What we know:
The structure holds two protein chains of two kinds. Chain A is mainly alpha-helical. Chain A is built from 17 helices and six strands. In chain A, strands 1-2 form a two-stranded antiparallel ribbon. A two-stranded antiparallel ribbon of chain A has the order 3-4. A two-stranded antiparallel ribbon of chain A has the order 5-6. In chain A, α6 runs antiparallel to α7, α7 runs antiparallel to α13 and α10 runs antiparallel to α12. The two termini of chain A are about 15 Å apart. By secondary structure, chain B is mainly α. Chain B has a single domain, classed as CATH 1.20.1420.20. Chain B contains 14 helices and two strands; from the N terminus they run ααααααααααααββαα. The two termini of chain B are about 15 Å apart. Chains A and B meet through β3 and α13 of A and α1 of B.
Amino acid sequence: MKRLPLLATLTFALIIFSNCDISDSSSSIETPEIYEFTRNGESTVSFSGQTTRLKMATELVQSIHDFDNSTSELLLQMFRNEGLNGEDVAPFNNEELNTSSKSIKSKVAASRDYFSAKTAVSAEIRSDFESWLTQVVEEVYPNKNTLAEPGVSGQIADGNSVRYVNAQGFEYDQLVTKGLIGALMVDQMLNNYLSTSILDEGTNREDNDSEVLVEGKNYTTMEHKWDEAYGYLFGNSANPESPMATLGSDDVFLNKYFGRLDNDPDFEGIAQEVFDAFALGRAAIVAGDYELRNEQAAIIRSHISTVIGVRAVYYLNAGKEGLSNSSPDYGAIFHDLSEGYGFIYSLMFVRNPRSNEQVFTKAEIDSLLANLTQGDGLWEVSPATLDDMISNISAKFDFNLEHAINSN
Amino acid sequence: MRVSVFLFIILLTALFGGCTGDSTQGPDVGDFDRQAILTNWADNIIIPAFTEFELKSSNLTEAAIDFDQSPNEARLDTLQSAWKDAYLAFQQVSMFETGPAMTLRYRTQLNTYPTDTTEIKANIENGDVNLALPSLVNSQGFPALDFLLFGTGSSNNEVLAFYTTNANAQKNRAYLIALTQRIEDLTEAVLGQWTDTYRDEFVANDGNGANASIDLMVNDYIFYFEKYLRAGKIGIPAGVFSGSALPSHVEAKYNGEIALELFNEALDASQNFFNGTHFQSNTSGLSLADYLDYLNTMKEGTDLTALINNQFETIRAQASTLNSDFAQQIASNNTEMLQTYDVLQRNVVFLKVDMLQALNINVDYVDADGD
């Protein structure tokens, strides 16, 4: 019952979209059930670069609290896949990642739409990640056997888990993990590969129409760009052609939280809609129907942006509720708010599907996050402050606030 | 606990509750004297049980100190007995992980098993470790003492050598004292808070709702029954959750012969709490059984209180077939362990589904997803 309004809205939106399809007489394109596209009997789908980056990011975040083996140098090498002076390095356990020419850093805050003319902002964002990776080693490692308290980094219990926090109560690994969801996955997907500035760049449309393939490949440039967007959500899936069965457990980034939202009755179905939009958009590219393709991109942008907004609000609220207990469980609260911090950070990469505009600028996000880092940080943040932040964020989205804070 | 999930459950339960509530006739949950239950729990069960356990834990510390002064076989025997007495007494308070105990993460520090022997040895080597660190719950409490007092040699002579002729003998003894002292300190803190202020707060908070004492305590009670009695003592070692049996996960692994005794003590404590039986007495006061009777709660034509008490008897009867050492039971015939789990599970359903529905109490915990 509670999910009706959202589903109704989504359904309504879809009806509008599909009506457009019909008026374009492109209704003959059916939504493929699996993400499989071929030419001359060979697959045309490729997103190995995205899979590589997902694997690199996975190893990176696993290493952040590996007190015995990690150093700030190693963490930075994993982030850059090169040394401080650009030399070749081998920081990963997976040898394939070491020999790859790709890196996480080169695609952080690197989308065409948001950062091609904002390289200074992009550099600031990359520097935020590098600071977190350095600070965790400098601040938290020496205090790994110290009890955390206001102004003192160390460990704190969250149920049966141990959390390692900085002097303000933040877990750096959560900042990095949740921050990458926005800065790497969402930014590349929504603001780069699904953007007409990339899809229709140069002669892409003509090439796609006449099936001019990329040299040595079985795909057109446009097909490939679309697949690369797909790869940031499903690139580490056990079965990437039909990824819904393992949704939520294929990585600890966008896939995980997309699955989380989809499991909530209030948002159930959102993942299938995104998968369908990817599949139909890809089929539209094959058929040369670019309007239909753009409509699918709009659905993906809207839903992916919703995921980030909902998770940001959800964690802020979880922290607020925790603080309202007579004996607050600070370990649990700090964990929630550290995740929240990362998702708020990620909000600067989402977009408003109607206006096609950025929802929050980096400066706006910085000032929002400054609410959490006053004085002793999370040790002294007030429920009222968290409430203000929730209002500030949810005002920019269409989702139902109750649905967001009730999610799981 | 995740508050949002919690709210969601409230919502669900509210929806379900709305359906059944319309057809319910007779006495109302709100009319029962909940404060009388809370008073009985606090004054006749919880505080007496903690008082008794504090005494036992103080004896344990004393025995460790005596042993340190003259590490001989007689004092080792005394220390081992004091450990067993305290471990049994702990079974009477473990379920009360509410209020002060919850804030202090009491149960986790006293009884996390299997214990981590590598970490124990590292702690001994370091000499001065802070046992308050959350990362050290696997190397303290009763399970760590179990290893130190029974697992450091294959006979008491060998165990004694660990504290006398071993190169680290003095540090080994010092760690014994540190662990016993930690148990006593935490217990004093919990009992102290109960007697200072928490008892009155607890009794005064007699409303109904998610933050009322009765809702919180009943949830903690069922959580204990489900996660610690059913899963921890039986289900996990029997392999219910892992597919294959995990005999190394039994409680009191090194002094294995007391596993059944610990289980029975915990089972008695659970049933006594349900019936409001005063600590170490045959007298009963008000409790969940009376509350259900007052509401005249029936399940499929049978009185729910009787169903639950009968099921406690069924569990007791089934457990009486078990080897006193659960690891041996698992090795010889794990089916008996699994059957014990099954009869425990039936009471989880009676308590968690039927009782909570009758009392209009919502479950406030879900299985953590561990992210």
